[in-house]
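>> received
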Amino acid sequence: MYDILNSQQIHSFITDGFVRIDNAFSSDIAAEARSILWKDIPANPNDRHSRSYGWGCIRRSHL
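>> returned
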């Protein structure tokens, strides 16, 4: 079996609840996922004040 995550990524997942995996998919798929996300949450991606539901911590670079 191949090691998928290194020890730092595993630790990050345990402590933070998520792990960042660079280049997991194309930028086109990322843009489509962002579009779906913003349609499904009660916030506007262009209005920082609308992100009062805890979504303000998500930055475009994380998606």
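>> The CA atoms of residues 1 and 7 lie 16 Å apart.
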